[in-house]
Amino acid sequence: MEPGLQQDNKTIILSLIRSGRIPHTIIIEGSEPEERADAAILLAAGIVCRGDERPCMRCNACRKALGKHHPDVFLPEPSKTLKSGILSLKDLRDGYLSQMSIRPNEADAKVTIFREADKLLREDSQNALLKTIEEPPQKLYFIFTVQSASSLLLTVRSRARIITLRHTALTDEESEAAAEHITDGLVSVYEYDLLRTLYGLSDKERLRGALSAFVEKLRLALSFYGGVNTGDASVKKLTRKLDRARVIALIEATGEAVQLLKTNVNIQLLTTWLCSRYRRITWQK
Ligand SMILES: [Zn+2]
Which of 58, 91, 130, 173 is most buried, by CB atoms within 10 Å? Predict the structure, then answer.
C-alpha cells in the first residue's frame, strides 16, 4: 500500500530521495501527524529499496518498509513502563542505540523513525542521540517527525535537514465549518472549547482559511446591528452573546492574527495569543 501523502508533499520526499543525497538526520515537520508519519515511511522505503528508481514501491524491501515490518526500519514506540507516551532513555539505549553498531539485516542501511519526536523523546533522550547523529556512520539514518522542528532541542535541529510538509488549504465548506466551530468555542462557557478548536487548525494555511471565514461571520454580525438579519446560525449565536463593540474588537483581533500569519510567527504562540485576546474581548464587563 502506498502512503496517503498529498501529491506536493510526496514530490518533496521523492525529490530528496532521488537527489541521491539523503541527509542522515532529517526532521519532517508540518501538516498532520499521520501525513508526517507516512512521509517518514516513504523516505525509509527510498533508503532501503532494492529497485532502480527508489522507492520503486514494488520490491520486497519497499513492501516491507511500507508495511512497517522491514527489519532495518525501526519505529520506536513509547515505553510501556511509562504512561505518558515517552520513550524512556533506558529503552532508547537498550532497544535502539545499542543496535546501531550492528550491521543492517537486509538493506544497506538502518533507518530509525522517531514519530512525534517532541513527545516521544525527552531532552535526556535527545541528548543521548546527539553523539550518534553528529557523526553518523554511513549506514544510519534518523528521521524525526514533529509538528514544528522548533520543539526539538536546538542541538538536534542544527544537525538535521528540516523538511516542511505543506498542508492543503481548507475548502470553502471546511472553512465555513471551522468558522462555526470558532463561534461555538467563543460563545461557550468553557475556555477549553475555543482553545481546542484553534489548536485543531495546526497549520498556517488552515488557520488563515478558518479565520477569514470567521471574519465574514463577524461582519455579518455587525450588519445585524445595522438592521440586516441574514438568519445565519453562527451570526445569531454571536449577536445573542456579544454587543457591537465586542464584535468590532473581535474583527480587529482576527485581522491582526491573519496579518501575523503572513510573517514567520510560531503558530502555537499565535494561537495562544489569539485565544487570550478573544477571551478578554468576550468576557470583559
Ligand atoms: Zn523498492
Answer: 91
Distance from Cα 129 to the centre of ligand 1, integer Å: 29
Tell me the CA–centroid distance for residue 55 and ligand 1, in Å: 5
pLDDT tens digit sequence for 141-172:
999 999 889 999 999 999 999 999 987 777 88
**Hey, where are the domains in the chain?**
7-165, 172-283
Residue 52 CA to ligand 1 center (angstroms) comes to 8
200 vs 196: CA distance, rounded Å:
6
Provide the whole-model pTM: 0.67
Q: Please write the tens of the pLDDT for every residue from 216-248.
A: 999 999 999 988 888 889 999 999 999 999 999
CA separation, residue 182 to residues 41, 44, 57, 116, 234 (Å): 34, 38, 41, 26, 9
Residue 130 CA to ligand 1 center (angstroms) comes to 30
Q: What is the CATH number of domain 7-165?
A: 3.40.50.300
User: Which 3 state secondary structure label does DSSP give 144?
Assistant: strand
Q: Ligand 1 centre from 60 Cα, in Å?
A: 7
* CATH code of the domain made up of 172-283: 1.20.272.10
